[in-house]
Write a structure and sequence with these properties.
binds adenosine-5'-triphosphate; alpha/beta; 4-stranded antiparallel beta sheet; Rossmann fold; globular; 6-stranded mixed beta sheet; binds magnesium ion
Length: 225
């Protein structure tokens, strides 16, 4: 059984006057430890798919299995438990809290974690070292460059030690050099055993992955190994 499996997943949004079917039967397997890239034109359904993979939303129909557990029809509470246990998110817009320091931003996901707290601060500092920000811990996001802010977001995504890292356009706001820095950090996480899925418009960014899928109009139209 793959780590993650989607069978014939559809997603339809109901707007006031119409139904919009965004995903039209997605079949996707992701193996443990894999580095996968997803490309596709704007509006093709990539972020919608990432929201489903990340348990931020539920499919309209289809089967959905994570780590041997059927999760297609779980409640919001059950999904949020799965998210905090398995998944770390990195987004294009970083989504850092503006008034919190780097250290506080990275610590945030641990607030919902009921495990003993003694080692948490140590772990946050260790992660900030891994992303090269140990000398910026007391800074606010506005005092950081875009690349540094994204590194804070990556450290935050890793703090609960998730198996799966989902990155939706993680380099969308960054220049080429900074994009390469961010992608080498994500590659390092992959080498450390994480499963990584990245959505991107940039073929160079996709080049870091082991496998590429393309989405057109809500369907996977191409898979390359
Ligand atoms: N909550 C929603 N309600 C209604 N329609 C939605 C919703 N979310 C997404 N859509 C529609 O689904 C389609 C796909 O959106 P999605 O964000 O998945 O595209 P995308 O491939 O990520 O595009 P981009 O590359 O621009 O980020 C769009 O037509 C969008 O309008
Ligand atoms: Mg998107």
């Amino acid at each position: 059984m793959p780590f993650f499996l989607m069978e014939n997943i559809t997603k339809t949004f109901n707007l006031a006057a119409e139904e919009v079917q965004v995903l039209k039967g997605i079949n996707l397997e992701i193996n443990r430890g894999e580095f996968l890239a997803i490309m596709g034109t704007s509006g093709s359904g990539k972020s919608t798919l990432m929201h489903l993979i990340g348990c931020l939303d539920v499919p309209t129909s289809g089967r959905f299995v994570l780590d041997d557990r059927e999760i297609s029809h779980l409640s919001d509470n059950e999904l949020s438990l799965i998210r905090s246990r398995y998944i770390g998110f990195v987004f294009q817009n970083f989504y850092l809290l503006p008034y919190a320091t780097v250290l506080e931003n990275v610590s945030l996901p641990t607030l919902y974690d009921e495990k003993k707290t003694d080692n948490k601060k140590k772990r946050v500092i260790e992660l900030l070292k891994q992303v090269g920000l140990e000398d910026r811990m007391g800074f606010k996001p506005s005092q950081l460059s875009g690349g540094q802010q994204q590194r804070v977001a990556i450290a935050r995504a890793l703090v609960n030690d998730p198996e799966l890292i989902l990155a939706d356009e993680p380099t969308g706001q960054l220049d080429d050099k900074t994009s390469r820095e961010i992608m080498s950090i994500l590659s390092k996480m992959h080498q450390n055993g994480k499963t990584v899925v990245v959505v991107t418009h940039d073929a160079d960014v996709a080049g870091y992955a082991q496998r590429l899928i393309r989405i057109t109009d809500g369907m996977i139209c191409d898979q390359t190994l």
